[in-house]
Design brief:
about 250 residues; alpha/beta; Spore Coat Polysaccharide Biosynthesis Protein SpsA, Chain A; five-stranded mixed sheet
């Protein structure tokens, strides 16, 4: 690349098998649209404990994208590994059995570029398919009436976000520990970043298509009624004022 990438698009794959091929097509289309809009986009594939069928879907992609192999076994830690390898000013994620609307990178970049240290972008809507079928509209933390205390009982935003790489470096995803009953690393990350004064906003006109499947990390968390690691949002004494500190596990 002739200059530092504007965006590193990261696709994390595990055991999605042939479904990963469709996700790869979506990944490539969004990157192509972003490049046509003048952005320099780096594509990075993270194969985290990927089985043979999943690895086969990425055979031959290395001339176009970088590929790294990891042994994390945890979705947040696989994303952290991608961030560590990324070279772009911004980073965004796609799971190996999900899809982006092709305008995702372009519109998320436009939303975040003006305030890279203050905004995290999400799709306007998630369209869920698989064992469940529903739609999930992402909230805008800047709108009047937004209630941050809802995060004590539920998660507003999905993990497939877009933000400055520096934010992901400052606030890495914390590993789940289902043996202790702690999971939902995306929910925890959303709480940590919101408390730090960073807004979560939907990129209007974008959609993510999310597969719900048995045996997923989310299903495992739900099966044991896992909770996210504790943050100040869990305290009824929390004032809602941003804190300029990184929250850590158990704090």
């Amino acid at each position: 690349m002739s200059r530092t990438p504007d965006v590193t698009a990261i696709l994390t794959a595990h055991a999605e098998g042939k479904l990963a091929a469709t996700s790869l097509v979506s990944f490539e289309r969004a990157i192509a649209e972003a490049r046509q809009a003048g952005l320099v986009v780096e594509g990075l594939i993270v194969l985290d404990r990927a089985d043979a069928s999943t690895r086969a879907q990425f055979a031959g992609v290395e001339p176009r994208f970088r590929v790294i192999m990891t042994d994390e076994g945890d979705p947040g830690q696989a994303r952290n590994a991608g961030v560590a390898a990324a070279e772009g000013r911004f980073v965004t994620f796609l799971d190996g059995d999900d899809l982006w609307s092709s305008n995702w990178i372009v519109l998320a970049y436009r939303l975040c570029a003006a305030e890279p240290d203050k905004v995290i972008a999400h799709s306007e809507v998630n369209i869920v398919f698989g064992v469940e079928r529903h739609m999930w509209w992402h909230a805008d933390s800047r709108l009047p009436g937004f209630d941050p205390t809802y995060l004590r009982i539920g998660n507003y935003w999905d993990a497939m976000s877009f933000a400055a790489r520096a934010l992901f470096q400052r606030f890495p995803f914390v590993a789940n520990d289902l043996r202790l009953g702690f999971g939902h690393e995306d929910w925890h990350w959303n709480c940590v970043t919101l408390v730090a004064g960073i807004d979560h906003r939907p990129a209007i006109g974008t959609a993510h298509f999310k597969r719900k499947r048995p045996g997923s990390q989310m299903a495992k968390c739900n099966a044991i009624s896992a909770a996210p690691w504790i943050t100040p949002l869990a305290s009824y004494e929390w004032t809602g004022r941003p804190a300029d500190t990184q929250l850590k596990r158990g704090v």
